[in-house]
C-alpha cells in the first residue's frame, strides 16, 4: 500500500511540474504557426507521422486542396497494383500518345511540351516505351505526358478506388493533366494532407503492394529530381523519397524521410495562395526543417 501511494504521489508531482512526453507536438505546432503567420492570405495543410515513435501531427489535415502533381503517386500505385493482378507487366511496352479525351464531353485535347516539366517524352510519341520508364518519368521529373498515358492505361476511377481501399476519404483522381474543360467546371484531382500521408505511409510500411513492387516504387520516389521543399533544408545524409506538385499559387510536397540511424517519418506539406514560388518554397522547407528537428530531438 505504501509503495502504491509513493507511485501515485510521484505521478502527481510529475503532472504538477508540467513534464511533457518527448513526443509532445505542442511546441512544434507553435513553431509551424509562426512560419505561416507571415502569409495570412495563404492556406496550408500539414500532416506528419513518425513511423518509429508513432507521433502524429496534423494542421488543416482534412482541408481539400487541388492535388496538382501529387496525384501522380496514386497513379503509380495503381499501375503496380494492376501489374500484380496480371493485367500487364511493369516491364511491358506501351504506345506513347498525345491525344486524350476530356472527361466533360469526350472532346480530344493534347499537351504542349513547353508547358510540361519534361520534354524528351514528346519525342517518343507514336513509339513504344516500357511502362516502368513512363512511370519513372511521371514521378521523377513530373512528366504530364507520362501521367496522361498512365491514367489512360489504368483508369482514373480505379486509382480513386484503390486510394479508398488504403483509407483515404477525400482524395480523388478524376482526370489527366491539362483537361481545360474539366478545370473550368471545377472537376479537379483533389487531396488532403491526411489522405496523402496515408498514401505515403502505405509505401513506407510496405503495405501498399507486394514487397518487390513496393521496393520499386520507393526506388522511383528516391530518384525524385525536385527536392527543394521537404529536402531543401535537411542534412545531406538524410534521404527523401517524395513527390511534389505545383501550379498557379499552389505548391505541395509529400514524402518519406529516412534518417541515418534507420528511423523514418512521413510528411505532407500543402499550400495555396502564395504566388511567389521562392516564398512558398522557403515557407514549406522551413516547416520541413522544424519537423526534422522535432523527430531528431524526440529520440534523445
Percent of residues in beta strands?
A: 15-25%
Note the total helix count.
10
Total discrete domains: 2
User: Which range best describes the helical content: under 10%, 10-25%, 25-40%, 40-55%, 55-70% or over 70%?
Assistant: 40-55%
Please state the structural category.
alpha+beta
General shape? globular
Write the layout of secondary structure elements.
Layout: H1 2-16, H2 26-36, E1 43-50, E2 56-59, E3 65-66, H3 72-84, E4 93-95, E5 100-101, E6 108-109, E7 128-130, H4 131-140, H5 144-154, H6 156-166, H7 180-184, E8 190-191, H8 193-204, H9 211-222, E9 239-247, E10 250-258, E11 264-272, H10 277-298
Antiparallel strand pairs: 1-2, 1-11, 3-8, 4-7, 5-6, 9-10, 10-11
Helix pairs in contact: 2-10, 3-5, 3-6, 4-5
Task: Describe it.
The protein is of the alpha+beta class and 300 residues long. The protein has 2 domains: 23-63 and 192-300, 3-Layer(aba) Sandwich (Beta-lactamase); 67-181, DD-peptidase/beta-lactamase superfamily (Beta-lactamase, 3-Layer(aba) Sandwich), CATH 3.40.710.10. Helices cover 41% and strands 18% of the residues. It contains 10 helices and 11 strands. The protein has helices at residues 2-16, 26-36, 72-84, 131-140, 144-154, 156-166, 180-184, 193-204, 211-222, 277-298, and strands spanning 43-50, 56-59, 65-66, 93-95, 100-101, 108-109, 128-130, 190-191, 239-247, 250-258, 264-272. The strands form 4 sheets. It has a 5-stranded antiparallel beta sheet, with helices on both faces. It has a two-stranded antiparallel ribbon with strand order 3-8. A two-stranded antiparallel ribbon has the order 4-7. The radius of gyration is 21 Å and the shape is globular. The two termini are 34 Å apart. The model is unreliable at 1-21 (pLDDT under 50).
